[in-house]
Amino acid sequence: MTDNNRKPLAVFDLDNTLADTAHRQRFLERRPRDWDAFFAAAPHDPPLTEGVALVLEHAEECEVVYLTGRPERCRADTAEWLAAHGLPEGRIWMRRDNDRRPARRTKLEILRGLARNREVRVLVDDDELVCEDAERAGFTVVRARWATQSAVLKVAQEREGRT
Hints:
Elements: E1 9-12, H1 26-29, H2 35-40, H3 49-59, E2 63-71, H4 75-84, E3 92-95, H5 103-117, E4 120-125, H6 128-136, E5 141-143, H7 151-158
Parallel strand pairs: 1-2, 1-4, 2-3, 4-5
Helix pairs in contact: 5-6
C-alpha cells in the first residue's frame, strides 16, 4: 500500500555519485587493501558538482534518501559530510559492518523494501551492475558517469562487498 500523501523518493548513492573518491583509491591498490584508511579518508571527499546539482533538483519534488555500500561504522562521518556540503537531509541506508554481499544485491533489496510503501522516482548510482539490476526490477535509473571510474573500486563493490 502506497502512502499517496507523501513525496516520492529519490535515492542517491554516495561514492562516485555525490562524493569523489579518487583521492582515496590508493588505499585499495595495495595488498592487502587498507579498508580502514579508505573509509577514514571519506570525510575529505570533494563533492561531485553534477551529483550535487541532481540531488538538489530532485529534492524540490522528492524526499531524498541515500543508499550506500559504506559500512554502518561510517554513519557519523557520512552524515557530517552530507551536511557540510549542503545536501538535503534524508535517511541514510548503509551496509551492516560485516555484510560482504555484492552491492547489486544489498542495494536492490533495500530499493524493493522502499518501494513497498513509497514510490521510488529514481535511483542515481555509478555502479553499472546495480543500475542494470535496478532497471530489470522496474526502477528508473540515472547512471552517475561523471566521476573517474576505478577498476579497483568496481571489484570492491561487486566481489568484495565493501562499498
